[in-house]
Amino acid sequence: MAERMKIRTYPAHLTAYERGVLLRFPDVPEAVACGCSEQEVLDSARPVLEAVLDGYVSQGRALPEPSQIEGAPVVATDRFDPEKWRPIF
């Protein structure tokens, strides 16, 4: 039987500046990433998102539910599947 995973997919907001791209998560405002290109910032966004969500968990805060923003790029993580997740301290 295939394992059922809970994947959280958070929409991201990208802002292009003269010297790079800034990525923010509307649902997780503490998670911010930057890079030289959209691809670079999207590639680096998952570890940033997961580190902030780890902080939520260690503080006893509920994980925010991802909103649905049509057309927005998304960053997915299965790290917080309740059956698989273990805190890293």
Uncertain regions: pLDDT < 50 for 5+ in a row?
none
How many helices does DSSP assign?
1
Proportion of residues in β-strands: 25-35%
Shape: globular
Query: What is the radius of gyration computed over CA atoms, rounded to a whole number of angstroms?
Result: 14 Å
How many runs of DSSP E, i.e. beta strands? 5
**Could you estimate the helical fraction of the residues in percent?**
10-25%
Order of helices and strands: EEEEHE
Largest sheet: 3 strands, antiparallel
In angstroms, what separates the terminal alpha carbons? 32 Å
Sheet with the most strands: spatial strand order: 2-3-4
Q: If you average the pLDDT, what whole number results? A: 87
Q: Can you give a write-up of this model?
A:
This protein is an alpha+beta fold. The chain has one helix at residues 38-58, and strands spanning 8-11, 13-17, 20-25, 28-35, 74-77. The chain contains one helix and five strands.
